[in-house]
């Protein structure tokens, strides 16, 4: 299964996704072909600043949620009917939900949950993937073969289905969901780490370290890992974007963190019966998901261009 | 070639063994006694003992695993604890809706993506090409349920006379009433396709640009062959191998993506079956579905991989 396009955990694909075996080539353009890269540079710059701005705003609200003058996410707002429309007034700029709770507050606490889960599971997936992948790429042989079977086993189950299986038996709390989401990411991180390790292992500095009698752990940790991490970092943002969608999907199916904890996916599901009369109950949280996902994708893309100098330099 | 296939076979057997073992072990991960999560807290001791006997919960993991494996070998995927029916029956009942959804999605996506991919490869960096880059990055960051809800809002609620009710009721089997069935499945198929089309078009564009630089295309052009003929007759076929591969691989992922769409549109498919089983803690059905999907995915994946090598001799040489 050497040509598995595995990033489509949810259908969110990293642009020009590598197939794991050929990392870090990014389908170099054939001689003379005009790639769309050049004329888009300005658009890219604008997109990057917009993305950083949006993520900055979200992170600000998430970090300072407790200090902001907003009602609690489960408090019923006095003096406003349920499903009050967004209006230009303080404090309920975004109106109230089906039970009369503050949409703005639920969005912010929902963002806190999405980002905590997303960042934690990305970190876990990256750690596990790096360990597995660099060991497999460095030692090859039976370790490599065993790892490949294990990864293909994870990949043979569509991501959401795997999570559903975990949700069927596990408790619906943050640790379970974080571990479940991390499992989805391990194969891709491990494949990228393995492929990068393979491409680095014959470099002069590694050779030199070997010649000087360095031990395996020194070579892996000091000579290989820094480069491997740098190359993989951009994928972490793509994965974070994908994970936010999966987490929202899970909450949307009522299989995420149980209520009254707010989450963007659950807010969409709650607003679904009122789609015809109060569409903003669905489309405000939906817009938050879309902006956040798009922003992380843009940032990941920028990182890839920035730090993947080897492939971009070679491809011209 | 035969050696390659043999290695592949050994690999997929190992992969499926790992999946099936993990699935058996899944029950052991249930916090507390799984019998209570099935029966509820007020279950009597006899009921619990009965569940233990039925599910062989008191046996060791290896013996349970052996039993489950031999059952699967006979095509028996266990018995649903909630409906008391064979899991296989539930799956066979749900399969037509999902199969129809997934196949129509692949067909529609290819039908839209091929002309776009060919055109953007023919005129790279044109206005349309740049516009398409924007559109595809938009669709790629849209979660499928958001796409679906937007579609529902526009077509089912704003355009009242569009004959799709929401939430969808009255699903008819394709064989019972093809017209009704196709109407109902239109929006779900479009919602799923919108995520496939950008992937397909982008892949075809990349391969096609490479093909268009081949000498034989230049030769065809100098002979005065029409552009349309060059693009669709000479260049498309050799450029479409990886597209076919991706379409095959995405079949498996679409079954996962269908979970959301099926739940949203109330299509009685594999996805709804899984979600409902998870909600009612019917672990046997979840195990059966996941195992079956894994088998389908791995088999399709391997078939695609092997056919790919067969169609394009260059791949065989590189792999050997």
Annotate the secondary structure layout.
The complex is a heterodimer of chains A (316) and B (320).
Chain A: H1 41-63, H2 103-139, H3 141-155, H4 159-169, H5 174-200, H6 204-211, H7 216-252, H8 264-271, H9 280-307, H10 309-315
Helix pairs in contact in A: 1-2, 1-9, 2-3, 2-5, 2-7, 3-5, 4-5, 5-7, 7-8, 7-9, 8-9
Chain B: H1 2-29, H2 34-39, H3 45-55, H4 61-73, H5 87-122, H6 127-140, H7 144-158, H8 178-212, H9 215-222, H10 227-239, H11 241-265, H12 270-279, H13 283-311, H14 313-319
Describe the structure.
The complex is a heterodimer of chains A (316) and B (320). Residues 1-39 and 309-316 of chain A have low confidence and may be disordered. Helix content of chain A is 64%, strand content 0%. In chain A, helix 3 (141-155) crosses helix 5 and helix 8 (264-271) packs antiparallel against helix 9. Chain A is mostly helical and 316 residues long. Chain B is an all-alpha fold and 320 residues long. Chain B starts with a helix and ends with a helix. The mean pLDDT of chain B is 80. Classes of the chains: A mainly alpha (316), B mainly alpha (320).
Helix fraction bin of chain A: 55-70%
Q: Which H/E pattern describes the elements of chain A? A: HHHHHHHHHH
From the helix content, strand content and strand pairing of chain B, which structural class follows? Answer: mainly alpha
Tally the helices of chain B. 14
Overall average residue pLDDT of chain B:
80
N-to-C series of helices and strands of chain B? HHHHHHHHHHHHHH
Q: Detail the poorly predicted runs of chain B.
A: none
The low-pLDDT segments of chain A are 1-39, 309-316
Note the beta-strand portion of chain B: under 5%
Average per-residue pLDDT of chain A, rounded, comes to 76
Major interchain interface with per-chain residue totals: A-B, 65 and 76 residues
Termini separation of chain A: 30 Å
- Annotation, overall tally of beta strands of chain A: 0
Total DSSP helices of chain A: 10
> How would the global form of chain B be characterised?
globular
Query: What kind of sheet is the major sheet of chain A?
Result: none
Strand share of the residues of chain A? under 5%
Rg of chain A, Å, rounded:
22 Å
Shape of chain A: elongated
Largest sheet of chain B: none
């Amino acid at each position: 299964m050497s040509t598995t396009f595995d990033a489509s955990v949810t259908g969110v694909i990293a642009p020009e996704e590598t197939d794991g075996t050929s990392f870090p080539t990014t389908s170099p353009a054939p001689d003379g072909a005009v790639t769309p890269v050049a004329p888009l540079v300005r658009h890219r710059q604008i997109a990057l600043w917009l993305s950083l701005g949006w993520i900055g705003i979200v992170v600000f609200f998430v970090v300072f949620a407790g200090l902001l003058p907003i009602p609690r996410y489960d408090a019923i707002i006095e003096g406003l009917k349920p499903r009050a429309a967004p209006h230009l007034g303080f404090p309920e700029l975004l109106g109230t939900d089906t039970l009369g709770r503050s949409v703005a507050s639920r969005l912010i606490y929902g963002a806190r949950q999405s980002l905590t889960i997303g960042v934690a599971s990305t970190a876990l997936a990256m750690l596990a993937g790096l360990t597995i992948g660099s060991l497999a790429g460095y030692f090859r042989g039976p370790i490599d073969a065993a790892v490949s079977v294990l990864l293909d086993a994870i990949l043979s189950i569509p991501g959401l289905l795997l999570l559903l299986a975990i949700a069927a038996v596990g408790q619906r709390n943050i640790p379970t969901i974080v571990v479940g989401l991390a499992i989805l990411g391990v194969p891709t991180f491990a494949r990228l780490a393995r492929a990068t390790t393979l491409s680095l292992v014959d470099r002069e500095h590694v050779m030199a370290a070997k010649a000087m009698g360095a031990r395996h752990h020194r070579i892996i940790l000091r000579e290989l890992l820094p480069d491997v991490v740098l190359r993989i970092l951009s994928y972490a943002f793509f994965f974070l974007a994908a994970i936010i969608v999966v987490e929202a999907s899970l909450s949307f199916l009522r299989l995420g963190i149980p209520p009254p904890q707010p989450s963007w996916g659950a807010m969409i599901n709650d607003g679904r019966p009122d789609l015809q009369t109060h569409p903003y109950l669905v489309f405000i949280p939906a817009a938050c998901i879309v902006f956040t996902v798009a922003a992380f994708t843009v940032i990941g893309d920028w990182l890839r261009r920035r730090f993947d100098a080897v492939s971009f330099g070679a491809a011209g | 070639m035969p050696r390659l296939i043999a290695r592949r076979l050994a690999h997929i057997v190992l992969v499926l063994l790992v999946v099936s073992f993990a699935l058996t072990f899944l029950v052991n991960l249930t916090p507390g006694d799984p019998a209570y999560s099935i029966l509820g807290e007020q279950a009597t001791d006899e009921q619990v003992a009965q569940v233990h006997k039925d599910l062989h919960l008191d046996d060791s993991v290896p013996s349970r695993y052996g039993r489950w494996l031999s059952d699967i070998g006979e095509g028996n995927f266990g018995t649903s604890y909630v409906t008391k029916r064979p899991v296989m029956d539930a799956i066979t009942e749900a399969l037509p809706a999902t199969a129809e959804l997934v196949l129509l999605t692949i067909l529609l996506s290819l039908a839209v993506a091929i002309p776009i991919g060919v055109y953007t490869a023919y005129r790279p960096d044109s206005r349309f090409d740049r516009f398409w880059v924007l559109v595809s990055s938009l669709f790629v960051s849209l979660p499928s349920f958001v796409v679906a809800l937007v579609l529902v809002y526009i077509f089912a609620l704003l355009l009242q006379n569009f004959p799709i009710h929401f939430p969808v009721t009255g699903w008819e089997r394709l064989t019972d009433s093809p017209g009704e069935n196709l109407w109902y499945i239109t929006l779900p198929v479009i919602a799923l396709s919108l995520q496939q089309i950008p992937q397909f078009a982008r892949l075809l564009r990349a391969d096609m640009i490479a093909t268009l630089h081949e000498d034989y295309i230049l030769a065809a052009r100098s002979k005065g062959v029409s552009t349309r003929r060059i693009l669709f007759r000479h260049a498309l076929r050799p450029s479409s191998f990886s597209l076919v591969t991706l379409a095959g691989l995405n079949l498996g992922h679409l079954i996962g993506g269908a979970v959301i769409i099926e739940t949203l549109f109330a299509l009685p498919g594999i996805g709804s079956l899984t979600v409902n089983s998870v909600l009612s803690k019917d672990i046997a059905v979840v195990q059966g579905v996941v195992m079956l999907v894994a088998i389908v995915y791995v088999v399709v994946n391997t078939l695609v991989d092997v056919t790919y090598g067969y169609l394009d001799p260059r791949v065989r040489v590189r792999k050997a």
